[in-house]
Amino acid sequence: MYFSQSALAALWLYAFLLGLFLGAVYDALRITRIFLGASYSPRLKEKLQAVTLPFLKKRVRRIKRQGVFFWIFVFIGDLLFSLLGGVLLILLFYQFNSGKIRFPAFFCTGVGFFLYRKTLGRLVMLLSEAIAFVLESAVRYLCFFAALPFRALFGVIWRFAVAKHKKAKAKKQRKERLRQTKKEWQKLTAGDKEKKQEVITEEKNGERIKKAV
């Protein structure tokens, strides 16, 4: 079967464009991973982690330890991307080459994919990490300012509860001191009574002795 050079050139061109499209799709997958905590630029990661947010006085440490959920998400995303790429290549061959596979088309697709990754893909990922940092910072500020009324209310309630607790504790301490003072006074009073009773007894004994003499 004869194929014109123009048809083959169209096949190579569309294979190249397909590679660019797949590069954009894969970047979309990587962007979702960025919002889950991944990073693709070590320099930008260090710069963003060194930023201290005003008012919050904290740093946004976006890069976290990826757990099992993250790697399952990556595996499923790569699997779906591979299936999509295979289906689109098959459709490309059926549309422009009557279903016959031509291996140079794979090469053109790969060139388009890696050319996108090395040019526009880098810019997209840098912008994505910066946007993710800005969004996470905005969420932190939103939570901080939204929590301010509740923090103020909690502070008022806490100070009121602490004041009531201190007042109750001071009242209890006063009662305890009064009880101790009363107990000591009763002891002193009982001692005075005993001394008075002894003096009276001694006086009575002294009068009896004088009468007897």
What pattern of helices and strands is seen along the backbone?
HHEEHHH
Got a strand count? Answer: 2
Provide the spatial order of strands within the biggest beta sheet. 1-2
Helix amount, in percent? over 70%
Q: Give the class from helix and strand content and strand pairing.
A: mainly alpha
Distance between the termini: 163 Å
Proportion of residues in extended strands:
under 5%
Low-confidence parts: none
Spatial extent as radius of gyration: 44 Å
Largest sheet, strands/sense/barrel: 2 strands, antiparallel
Indicate how many domains the architecture comprises. Answer: 1
Task: Please report the number of helical segments.
Answer: 5
Q: Which whole number gives the mean pLDDT?
A: 76
The general outline is rod-shaped
Describe, in plain words, how this protein is organized in 3D:
The chain is mainly alpha-helical and 213 residues long. The chain has one domain (5-163). The protein has five helices and two strands; from the N terminus they run ααββααα. The protein has helices at residues 5-34, 42-49, 68-97, 103-118, 120-212; strands at 52-53, 58-59. It has a two-stranded antiparallel sheet with strand order 1-2. Strand 1 and strand 2 form a beta hairpin. Helix 1 (5-34) runs antiparallel to helix 3 (68-97) and helix 1 packs across helix 4 (103-118). The radius of gyration is 44 Å and the shape is rod-shaped. The mean pLDDT is 76.
